[in-house]
Amino acid sequence: MIRKDKTLHAGTGKLEETPGGRAAGWINLASSMEGCERIEAYFSGPAYQPHRHDTYAIGCTLSGVQQFRYRGGVSEGLPGTAMVIHPDELHDGQAGTEDGFHYRMFYLDPALVQTALGGNQPLPFVAGGISRDPGLLRAIAGLVSHIGEPMETMHYNDAVYDLALALQAAGEPSAARVISAPDSRAAHMARDFLRQACGQSVSLEQLEQMTGQDRWQLSRDFRVLFGTSPYRYLTLRRLDHARALIRAGASLVQAALEAGFADQAHFTRHFRSSFGITPARWRRLISQI
Length: 289
What we know:
disordered N terminus, transcription regulation, Transcriptional activator FtrA, Tscrpt_reg_AraC-type_HTH, Arc Repressor Mutant, subunit A, DNA-binding transcription factor activity, alpha+beta, seven-stranded antiparallel beta sheet, Jelly Rolls, 2 domains, 289 residues, activator
């Protein structure tokens, strides 16, 4: 049972405390690779408000009950189960018991799954966000078992390939209703441009002119291939840049403006919508480690 005081938990970090002294949680930002962010965390009580990512959120509960509302239902992540939240799907997170929950999670760019599966395929989808598939559990372990250690590039590529195949085997197509093959060239061109222009103002007209594709078709193809809209992708890249600035010591206001947000309030609104907590709380949580 995890103690609800100031002691270190499993050598990973300190518990953040609420004003009343009750332990709220911590987040350990592990070493990340291209297209994959990994964390280990503990929370008691409410953890995340409703939010959505433009990545897969995949992981496992180490202890306790991780409860989350997802696609009209309530799912529970328990030890021995895999959690797979599809890109751009609204969800929240809270402890299912008063003991809290301890988990490891990684946020994986769906483009990596696409590439591993050969490209231009519907993204694998796991109904309910929970699976007990042994192959999927093994593949997840390949990415989180030694979360405190960096992974060599070849090891990481193998782990992502194994995960993509396991997702495909354990899930069902999320986009089987696609009528025509997506324009992969235009979508990848738009994605590369958005990644480079995250601190700038970008319009759909710019994307149309650059790719030669109608904005609506481009938006549909982008969603099929990358699991989210061009705007959401741009917003998440801005948030990635802002978080890097904060970790480097920038103030919240400075990070917001340099990352392309109109002001700190605009930044805070998008941060909370994407990660379920405010930038100020996220900064406190990572400073506990």
